[in-house]
Amino acid sequence: MPQDNLEDTQKIKKSGAEKVPGKISDTQPLEVKKPRRGRVILLGILFTLLLGAAGGALGYRQGIQDRINRQQEQVLKEAAVQYQYGMQQFNNGNFELARTHFEYVLQNYPSFPGIAEKYTETMVQLASASIPTAQPQATPTLTNLNADALFNQAQQEVQTQQWAAAVNTLEALRNEDSNYRTLEVDSLFFTALRYRAVELIVNEGNLEEGLYFFSLLGKFAPLDHDAVNYANWARLYLTGASYWEVDWEQVVNYFSQLSAAFPYMHDGNGWTATDRFIKGSEFYGDQLVSAGEHCQALQQYQTVLNYSANEPVQDKYNQAYRKCYPPTKTPEPTQEATIEVIPTEETPSPEPEPTPTP
Q1: DSSP characters for 58-114?
Q2: Confidence (pTM)
Q3: Whole-angstrom distance, CA of residue 321 vs CA of residue 134
Q4: Would you say 169 and 150 are in contact if contact means Cβ atoms under 8 Å apart?
Q5: Of 44, 48, 183, 277, which one has the fewest beta carbons inside 10 Å?
Q6: Euclidean distance between CA atoms 272 and 255, whole angstroms
Q7: Fold entry, domain 44-128
Q8: Which fold is adopted by the domain 244-325?
């Protein structure tokens, strides 16, 4: 074979062996890529987690909203009760007690219908009412003294803790000359009013006037920690007393707190917080007994007996105890049935006859 023909056939073989890109041979098997199963599973798990998180977040948010709604309903209910008590005190002319109830509503539910107008009306009544002040004993006629003498006298009364006299002297000084040593007079006035308010609440039981002095002080400067406590305790006493013969459960609620914090706080009638707590507990126990709740009444009577022996209350306790824990009946002895055993006669078995021997 010639050399040229040989080269031509080799070129044809080589060209036939070359692969054309993009073209698949009919005899070549197709390669199909299998889907990655791990990725699909991972996406499914991720989607499930996202759904769970979204559902949990929605549930948590709904739970918080439900709790807020319940709290708001409770606040509104308590505000309505306090408003009604405030209206009762207002209609009876007890404007200071009415103010206490209305302030509670304003602090806890300021959008309560009509509370702003009624509170304003109460404050107008209080402002128009004349509040008596204690007169100093054995003091010279104030109108005959000049400003210097009044100032020196007020300083001496503050140093000797004659608070009522100091308040009256400083009031006379301001009427004499309102521009006289203003900073020093204001400082003396603040001190005298502060301790006079405590004196009224703690010693004299004049809680309303003591709170009035504290309200005046609060307009000039913040009250100290002790003054805030005295004011809170006085409000607690007045609020608890406003429920007297109206709601014995609330009487016990308020005076149980006050008797623990300030047991000897008293009003103008001489009733201490402890006295009212004890008597309120007894009356609340009577109310529970009348309602048939003898077991709950036991706790109230026990509170009274924890302070001192009280025969009438002890009798009430014993009666409530028998109602709460009635005695159980003793079971009567039962007669056991006796089984009569009848002996059976044994029939003798026949003796075997001897067999003759063959």
Answers
A1: HHHHHHHHHHHHHHHHHHHHHHHHHHHHHHHHHHTT-HHHHHHHHHHHHHH-TT-TT
A2: 0.53
A3: 51
A4: yes
A5: 183
A6: 10
A7: 1.25.40
A8: 1.25.40
44-128 and 244-325 have identical folds: yes
User: Could you tell me the residue ranges of all domains in the chain?
Assistant: 44-128, 132-223, 244-325
Determine contact, residues 306/244, Cβ cutoff 8 Å. Answer: no
Beta bridge partners of 272: 266
